Amino acid sequence: MLRKEEPNDRDGALSGLRGFIAESGFEAGQKLPSERNLTDRLGISRGSLRKALDELEREGTIWRHVGKGTFVSGPADAEAPDTPPAAKIGRHLTPFRMMRARLAIEPAIAREAAMNTSSEALARMEHALEHSRKAQSWQAYEQYDDLFHRAIAEGSDNLLLLSIFEQLNQVRREIVWGTVTRHTPRPSEDHFSFEHHDRIAAAISGRDPVAAYEAMRTHLRAVSAWLFRDV
């Protein structure tokens, strides 16, 4: 008969894992050893380890990417009373879960835009597409990428969806923009986002909600794979 795990076992696994991470000097973005390695080092069961990992992920100490492993998050500074809500959320949300949120929300917004967009919103999308291709730096590209996705949210003609998008986008900046490593000074001419953005814009302009939903979903899945390509 298996021994039922006691609360002290879980607490011991959690404190042991915390101590291991702190004493090993892991930096933000570094990958932790495998679960088998950790159970051997800490002398705990696989079940206790996974409960401890779940707790640390909820706290924002680590983040996990399915199929690639567990990674240490950046240090969470004490929050000042006037810390913006997006910054507070960003400190407790992993990049992987941020992308899951985008996948849940932005395709639906694109679908609504295909049914409700105005000529003004379409013009803003085209403006963003044109200037993003001419961007001479990643910072400039990201500004027009931001404008493109915002124009889609505006095209939904739904103030609540636009508000949700704005908060999601602010959290995205908190999590991603300061941590992504760039290997070139600007996006290459064949960067996948250009073609994806064209497909999204064409579906919205063509008033095809199903195509708009799928095009945005395909795009965000590719963004997720690209963000985590080096981990």
Descriptive notes:
With 231 residues, the protein is mainly alpha-helical. It folds into two domains: 7-72, Orthogonal Bundle (Arc Repressor Mutant, subunit A), CATH 1.10.10.10; 85-227, GntR ligand-binding domain-like (Four Helix Bundle (Hemerythrin (Met), subunit A), Up-down Bundle), CATH 1.20.120. Helices cover 67% and strands 3% of the residues. It has helices at 7-24, 35-42, 46-59, 85-90, 95-116, 119-134, 138-155, 159-177, 192-205, 209-227, and strands spanning 62-65, 69-72. Strands 1-2 form a two-stranded antiparallel sheet. A hairpin with a 3-residue loop joins strand 1 and strand 2.
Key attributes of the depicted protein:
231 residues; mainly alpha; Arc Repressor Mutant, subunit A; Four Helix Bundle (Hemerythrin (Met), subunit A); 2 domains; two-stranded antiparallel sheet; 10 helices; 67% helix; elongated; disordered N terminus
CATH architecture of the largest domain: Up-down Bundle
Unreliable segments of 5+ consecutive residues: 1-7, 76-83
CATH homologous superfamily of the largest domain?
GntR ligand-binding domain-like
Rounded to an integer in angstroms, the radius of gyration calculated over CA atoms is 21 Å
Trace the largest sheet across and list its strands.
1-2
Following the backbone from N to C, one meets helices and strands in this order, namely HHHEEHHHHHHH
